[in-house]
Amino acid sequence: MGGVRLEMIRDEIIALRPVYTERGDATEVYLRCGEVKLFYAGIKSVRRSFLRNYAVDLSGQQEILAEELSKSKLLPFYIGIRVFVPLKMRKTVSKHDMVNGYVEVGEVRDFKAVDRNSCVLNLKSGLSIPLTCGEETVVKSLYQGEKLKERLIKEKQEKEGYVYQQDNPLLALVMEMERRRQEEG
Fold first, then answer.
1. Contact 86, 77 (CB under 8 A)
2. Residue 92 counted as domain residue
3. pLDDT tens digits for 93-134?
4. For the chain, how many structural domains are there in total?
5. Distances (CA, A) of 76 to 21, 86, 98, 105, 115
6. Are 84 and 155 in contact (CB under 8 A)?
7. Quick check: is 1 in a domain?
8. What is the number of other CB atoms lying within 10 angstroms of the CB of residue 94?
9. Boundaries of domain holding 60
10. Torsion angles phi and psi, residue 48, rounded to 5
11. What is the per-residue pLDDT for 8?
12. Are 2 and 40 spatial neighbours (Cβ–Cβ below 8 Å)?
């Protein structure tokens, strides 16, 4: 995988994006500092290695989230209070193709719809990630991630007995968009 070991950058990772290269499937790893590292492994392998560095039981976590969110596919994952949501980041080329990447919701600055089926996600690091999904999908995924993060923060507060203040303009935007979407539907 790339020229750098995943465990050396694990705390800086803010997004995982599946890409094709001349060598086959690979994963772009976006870092908080604004760099992007290329790992010559599929996104499933990179995500598994990333989570292994934190001793996260992904299958156990996914089982709990599937029940909590009433869905079994395209689930977020979390490390502490860092929540990574799935978003479609490339077009399908073959059956069983991994097209979804993951973005840490706390690192998203905003997003902009390009057309009906594509958006650009802007990160706080200054990097942008092209998405191959529409605005509604982005709003739902970010909303779900923010709600999960709120729950994790609340649990941490109760466990550790402190208050975590978060001023997040993206959360306000996503919450307002989801409220409008529910009113229209």
1. no
2. yes
3. 777 778 999 999 999 999 999 999 999 999 999 999 999 999
4. 1
5. 26, 6, 15, 10, 25
6. no
7. no
8. 5
9. 6-184
10. -60, -45
11. 94
12. yes
